[in-house]
Amino acid sequence: MTRIFELTGFQRDLLYVIAGADRPSGQSVRREMETHVDTVNHGRLYPNLDALVDHGLVEKGTRDERTNYYELTRAGSELLAQRRDWEKQYVSPLKEPPQQQ
Known about the structure:
Blueprint: H1 9-19, H2 26-34, H3 42-54, E1 58-62, E2 68-72, H4 74-90
Antiparallel strand pairs: 1-2
Helix pairs in contact: 1-3
């Protein structure tokens, strides 16, 4: 079983984007990633999506002759839940900064 620490940060971010969408295409994933990072080119995106498929964290399906979709597997969902539990140990909910007078 793959552990979250075996993934790159980029791969982990891809998992979050896929989890937050309904069977996004690779291009949809790319566009969403580009709202948070600089240009995500084909040569970076698809090998990392394929790696997530190989790890069994993402399922790749066919929408039509030219378009694939990506969907989190149960293992992918569990991995993200474990990550969030781990993060909660170290990061408390953000508090409002004190008002300056």
